[in-house]
Specification:
The complex is a heterodimer.
Chain A: H1 3-13, H2 15-48, E1 55-59, H3 63-72, E2 81-82, H4 84-91, E3 95-107, E4 110-115, H5 119-124, E5 132-133, E6 141-144, H6 146-152, E7 159-161, E8 163-164, H7 170-176, H8 181-189, E9 191-197, E10 209-211, H9 215-219, E11 229-230, E12 232-237, H10 240-251, E13 256-260, H11 261-304, H12 306-314, H13 319-360, H14 371-396
Parallel strand pairs in A: 4-10, 6-9
Antiparallel strand pairs in A: 1-12, 1-13, 2-11, 3-4, 3-8, 3-12, 5-9, 6-10, 7-9
Helix pairs in contact in A: 1-13, 2-11, 2-13, 2-14, 3-11, 11-12, 11-13, 11-14, 13-14
Chain B: E1 2-13, E2 16-28, E3 33-37, H1 44-52, E4 59-64, E5 67-68, H2 74-84, E6 85-88, H3 100-105, H4 114-127, H5 143-155, E7 161-165, H6 173-190, E8 193-198, H7 201-204, E9 209-212, E10 221-223
Chain lengths: 406, 225
């Protein structure tokens, strides 16, 4: 009988304990895989999130808030800046291109963003084609991100009315709290028509609805005549040096801030990384528990099988065979748990990708094999091997005469 | 086949050294079938353990089939046991999670082909009358059947020496007689050397040769039949 047959038989003989061991490894691995997927999604989102717009200009306030709202459509804007500032920025020789953005409304929780159409080729390149339809051109036309389109079941030609606020239900709360009833009515009276669906861009734009910049002025009564405001100005500097100059120049204007987008995003990623580190501690506890389960399972196996080990020694099986049988059993359980965990982790990522995207704006590439997974596999097998080594050594030392001891 | 020269073995007990074996000289020829008899604690089992290489004598030389066991390290004695010794126990000691066939497969030499293994397993299980029960777990076999499976395990790898420690001690009188007859018959037919430890004088009478291990410091005395 080959060693592999013997250890497989032993695993099957203790089905419940083997199953508990495999599951504890699988759950730990799945948790780590899910964290890796989210972390990769976060990094990719941070990298791709702001495109070439190295400087962002907006109302004074938190730099992170300005970046999150402008590029990730998360949270409230810091306020508004005058539209006239856009003209000034565009005239600046250090500016390659600049686009104004207006926000403040939503459709069932999906943000409606006013943006000049020229944003798309600059952000995603001239080669990017619409999935369906065309880009908007006049007031009332809108394009919808691929995820929002599929979540809302919207198609080209569909019409809708927006609601005030950046999240679903915010308008109702505003009204309850004594908000402007006329403005609420204005939102409901303004009808958008979907003229195009964006292709999957794997950024937060997938869950946004884009329309003309002037929508905000049409639905908000206060935005008329010379009082027109924008939420933010996205600036692509003509050079790296230009970025510094733009930041310094526009950061000095009263009630206006100019930020390095990359720095603000990096600050946010660092905060999230700290959260990930806290989760890593929980994962570490899971790893210790899984290793403990393997250890206890094999210690129990050695106690149960002392006589069998004695017999194997007596019929001439070497100490190495005994050691390998136990370590092999531990490694086999770990390996099965590892494979199962990898599958569950990726499947969990696949099934939870929409919820994660909706909740955190993270795009999870659920079936992508990440470099960290190789490390995870090696580390898991190492932990399994180490946990099995102790009991295996105990078995290794069993005296053949153990068989005759009562 | 077996040659012992000035072999002694003692065990520590309550801080004192208790001599168990003291054998000036003993020789067993190949193919002999010997019943080793004597009271409990007289060193019968210790003798088997010395001959199997599980324990080393304190002094003296132990030769089995030309192999100097007294000179071998543990790993070499493991190899010797796997190749040349078949062990049969009073409590059978079949691994409960394995079928009768799988228990026997544990012993099959790794160099055997799958076909050779199957042929040999079929042959031996048929020879002990267990051809229909080889895929049963030990718990599904009677005690007599378990001992027959254990006999197959001891014989399958074609060892030179069969060591049996009270092989019928857990069986009823009738089954014990059947199993002992089977063992003797196979060893005679295959020309295997058989050394059986027993305290049952009636069963010992079935053996061509009986040897008493008397008390401490006693020399092994051969009693010709």
């Amino acid at each position: 009988m080959k060693l592999i047959s013997l250890l497989w038989n032993n695993i099957l003989h203790r089905k419940t304990l083997s199953l508990v061991t495999v599951l504890s490894v699988a759950i730990t691995v799945a948790l780590v895989v899910f964290l890796l997927l989210c972390s990769a999604g976060l990094e990719q989102g941070a990298e791709k999130g702001y495109g070439p717009f190295e400087v962002t200009i907006g109302a004074k306030g938190s730099a992170s808030q300005l970046a999150l709202n402008t590029y990730y459509h998360i949270g409230a804007p810091t306020g508004n800046v005058p539209l006239s500032l856009l003209d000034e920025v565009r005239k600046d020789p250090q500016v390659g291109s600049a686009f104004a953005m207006t926000t403040g409304d939503n459709l069932n929780g999906f943000p409606i963003v006013g943006m000049e159409p020229g944003y798309f080729p600059v952000r995603y390149g001239n080669d990017t084609q619409m999935a369906e339809g065309k880009l908007y051109g006049k007031l009332g036309e809108a394009v919808i991100g691929s995820y929002a389109a599929s979540a809302l079941g919207m198609h080209v030609g569909d019409k809708f009315q927006g609601a005030h606020g950046l999240v679903k239900g915010a308008a109702d709360e505003d009204e309850d709290a004594g908000g402007d009833h006329d403005e609420h009515e204005a939102h409901h009276a303004f009808t958008y028509t979907i003229v195009g669906i964006l292709p999957p861009l794997h950024t937060s734009d997938d869950r946004a609805i884009y329309t003309t910049l002037d929508y905000a002025w049409a639905v908000h009564e206060s935005q008329s005549g010379a009082n027109k405001d924008v939420t933010a100005i996205l600036v692509k500097p003509s050079s790296l040096l230009g970025a510094q100059s733009i930041k310094t120049k526009y950061g000095q204007i009263s009630n206006v801030q100019a930020i390095y987008t990359s720095k603000a995003v990096a600050d946010v990623v660092n905060v999230v990384d700290k959260g990930t580190q806290a989760l890593s501690v929980v994962t570490g506890v899971c790893v210790v528990l899984a290793a403990g389960t393997i250890l206890l399972s094999l210690i129990a196996a050695v106690q149960e099988r002392k006589r069998d080990v004695g017999l194997l020694r007596l019929i001439g099986k070497s100490k190495g065979f005994i050691w390998m049988a136990l370590v092999g059993e531990g490694l086999s359980l770990t390996f099965i748990g590892l494979i199962l965990g990898l599958l569950i982790g990726h499947l969990g990522g696949y099934l939870g990708r929409e919820a994660v995207f909706e909740f955190a704006g993270l795009q999870i590439q659920s079936w992508q094999l990440m470099p960290g997974e190789w490390m995870l596999a090696v580390f898991t097998l190492l932990i399994g091997g180490l946990a099995a080594a102790g009991p295996a050594l105990q078995a290794y030392r069993v005296d053949p005469l153990q068989l005759f001891k009562s | 086949m077996i040659q012992l020269e000035a072999v002694s073995k003692s065990f520590a007990m309550h801080g004192k050294s208790l001599p168990i074996l003291q054998i000036p000289s003993w020789r067993v020829e190949s193919g002999e079938r010997i019943a080793l008899i004597g009271p409990s604690g007289s060193g019968k089992s210790t003798m088997l353990h010395v001959l199997s290489g599980v324990i080393q004598p304190d002094q003296g030389e132990v030769w089995v089939d030309g192999e100097p066991l007294h000179q071998y390290k543990e790993a070499k004695r493991d190899q010797y046991r796997a190749k040349k010794v078949g062990y049969i126990f009073q409590d059978f000691h079949l691994i409960s999670s394995l079928t009768a066939r799988q228990n026997v497969e544990l012993i099959v030499p790794s160099e055997w082909s799958k076909r050779q293994t199957t042929e040999q397993l079929d042959y031996w299980f048929e020879r002990v009358g267990l051809q229909d029960r080889m895929h049963h777990l030990p718990s599904q076999l009677s005690r007599g059947q378990q001992q027959r499976a254990a006999i197959v395990r001891a014989l399958i790898a074609k060892p030179k020496l069969i060591l049996a420690d009270e092989p019928t001690g857990s069986l009823d009188w009738e089954t014990a007689g059947d199993v002992m007859s089977l063992l003797l018959e196979i060893c005679e037919a295959e020309r295997l050397t058989l050394l059986t430890v027993t305290h049952d004088l009636h069963l010992a009478d079935m053996y061509p040769t009986r040897i008493h291990i008397q008390d401490l410091n006693e020399i092994v005395r051969r009693e010709a039949v």
